[in-house]
Specification:
Blueprint: E1 3-16, E2 19-32, E3 36-40, H1 47-54, E4 62-70, E5 73-74, H2 80-86, E6 91-94, H3 98-101, H4 108-120, H5 124-137, H6 143-147, H7 156-168, E7 174-178, H8 186-203, E8 206-211, H9 214-220, E9 223-228, E10 231-237, H10 238-243, H11 248-255, H12 295-299, E11 305-307, E12 310-312
Parallel strand pairs: 3-8, 3-9, 6-7, 7-8
Antiparallel strand pairs: 1-2, 1-4, 4-5, 9-10, 10-12, 11-12
Helix pairs in contact: 4-5, 5-7
Length: about 325
């Protein structure tokens, strides 16, 4: 299957008062057409910064290098006018907080029709009809009445649906969802996940889901990229990742998550804290928290090694079955 996005050697750095921070370091990955890729990891792993860098949305103190091939374009370093033509039309993003993602002083109507007028050349009447139809498609009840309201007049779940509708208005080739269920209660989470599944079938876009919730991964994804301290430590088809995780960090994440498909009496927390990105330890960045680390891990960073459809950055041998988090390796 052809890649719709091919990222090579992506590095994202920020200048801070305390020095330079490397949020993403030499990342390689691809996104296939029509697939759903989940990007997982703890807070600060660099998940969101990957796609903010690709879309030219880093803060002023941030800079990106490497390449992100999208069609005939390299998105890294592309000028703002060209990026403005791509963002919202070919690549759309659903941010974590729907309230801060919309302009509170503009109606839902104006914010949606503006996208269609800018990218599709529609007139106001045509754009209005198309936008209302999209609100209905994402499950907004009485969409014509809701259309002329302001964001603060809608519930959190409705605002999230509006943001998803806005992202889909131009039938983008790539839809990026950044923690799409974080601020929602359990019932709304289930509704939004079901909505993403249905919309994926209807629109056929490639989808990236950025999350720390492995339940979301199991529900939506076909492939998973696990991030730790700015590095990809494992990339795998979702079923393989849950059945035979190859990186100790992936195993630790799974052992810390309730599993309805297995008997599990207690959850095992990941010891220690994520590293300070200004002062990463030598060697593998996970080795201070890894019960399976040995001497080589402390002095040399493992490269991302690929075998078949799976990749891992770990010196441990490839395994055919899960290894318990606390099991030592000589």
């Amino acid at each position: 299957m052809a890649s719709v996005l091919d990222v090579r050697d992506l590095t994202v750095r920020f200048d801070t008062a305390d020095g330079e921070v490397c949020a993403v370091d030499g990342l390689d990955f691809s996104l296939e057409a029509h697939e759903t890729l989940a990007v997982v990891g703890e807070s600060g792993a660099g998940k969101s910064q990957i796609f903010l860098a690709i879309l030219g949305l880093l803060t002023r103190n941030g800079r990106a290098s490497g390449t992100a091939a999208f069609g005939d374009h390299d998105l890294i370093g592309l000028d703002r006018a060209a990026l403005d033509d791509i963002r919202g039309r070919d690549i759309s993003i659903v941010f974590q907080d729907p309230m801060t993602s919309m302009n509170p002083s503009l109606t839902i109507a104006r914010q949606m029709t503006e996208v269609l007028e800018r990218h599709q050349g529609m007139g106001r009447i045509q754009a209005r009809a198309h936008a209302i139809g999209m609100l209905e498609q994402v499950g907004i009840a009485d969409a014509p009445a809701r259309f002329d309201t302001y964001p603060y007049e809608l519930s959190g779940g409705m605002r999230q649906r509006v943001i998803i509708a806005m992202a889909l208005l131009c039938n983008p080739r790539i839809l990026i969802a950044d923690e799409p269920t974080t601020s929602l209660d359990v019932t709304l989470q289930a509704q939004i996940l079901a909505l993403f599944h249905d919309l994926k079938q209807a629109f056929g876009s490639a989808v990236v889901v950025i999350t720390h919730d492995l339940g979301v991964v199991a529900t939506l994804a076909q492939r998973v990229m696990v991030m730790y301290a700015g590095y990809a430590v494992e990339i795998s088809p979702v079923d393989d990742l849950f059945d035979t995780p190859q990186h100790p960090y992936t195993r630790a994440l799974l052992n810390a998550m309730p599993r309805v498909d297995r008997e599990q009496s207690t959850l095992v927390p990941i010891t220690g804290q994520p590293p300070n990105l200004e002062r990463l330890p030598p060697g593998c960045p996970f080795h201070p928290r890894c019960p399976q680390a040995f001497e080589r891990c402390r002095i040399e960073r493992p490269p991302l090694e690929t075998r078949g459809v799976r990749s891992k950055a770990c010196f441990l041998d490839w395994t055919a079955a899960p290894v318990a988090t606390g099991q030592a390796v000589p």
